[in-house]
């Protein structure tokens, strides 16, 4: 039993850090606010990139009636996300893909939710621009996309909303446009 615990801890904490990325769990109220800012509607497809334990996909499915896909590279996180969806009663409306978020087809996404380290935000930008259809929304916790002007910001929770195709600009240009 002790060995199993050590293996789980290694897969949950150590291995992700060796890859240069550590888990960034989001609070439920931040996720709720992000989904509200993105105006998630029943039946829409929400992708949670770097889904970790699956809490964002569960919120999207349970509280907004969306269909959701969690994308997570770590197998232990995928298993935990599946269990979270099962015990939350939303397993029929979600799926978990144990895959690299940079290699997932997002063509059917209405909303992409992410809480990623800045290095991953920069890496995922070209994929979002090339695969998301016009009108799709991207909502990012804490880390904005450089060179993209947000369509909305929740300053209190540091949440950034973008609509595809993104407008060139920055947080500053967004703030100036809302103050005039």
In CATH, the architecture is: 3-Layer(aba) Sandwich
Can you identify the CATH class? Alpha Beta
Low-confidence stretches: none
Question: Helicity level, as a percent range?
Answer: 40-55%
Overall pLDDT confidence: 90
Radius of gyration: 16 Å
Total number of β-strand segments? 9
How is the topology of this model organized?
Layout: H1 2-18, H2 28-37, E1 45-49, H3 55-64, E2 67-72, H4 75-87, E3 94-98, E4 111-114, H5 118-131, E5 137-141, E6 148-149, E7 152-154, E8 159-163, E9 167-168, H6 171-179
Parallel strand pairs: 1-2, 1-4, 2-3, 4-5
Antiparallel strand pairs: 5-8, 6-9, 7-8
Helix pairs in contact: 2-3
Describe the structure.
This protein has 180 residues and is an alpha/beta fold. 41% of the residues lie in helices and 21% in strands. The protein has helices at 2-18, 28-37, 55-64, 75-87, 118-131, 171-179; strands at residues 45-49, 67-72, 94-98, 111-114, 137-141, 148-149, 152-154, 159-163, 167-168. The strands form 2 sheets. A 7-stranded mixed β-sheet has the order 3-2-1-4-5-8-7, with helices on one face. Strands 6-9 form a two-stranded antiparallel sheet. Strand 1, helix 3 (55-64) and strand 2 form a beta-alpha-beta unit. Helix 2 (28-37) crosses helix 3. It is globular. 38% of the residues are buried.
Give a concise summary:
The chain has six helices and nine strands.
Quick tags:
single chain, alpha/beta, 9 strands, Rossmann fold, 180 residues, 41% helix, seven-stranded mixed β-sheet, two-stranded antiparallel ribbon
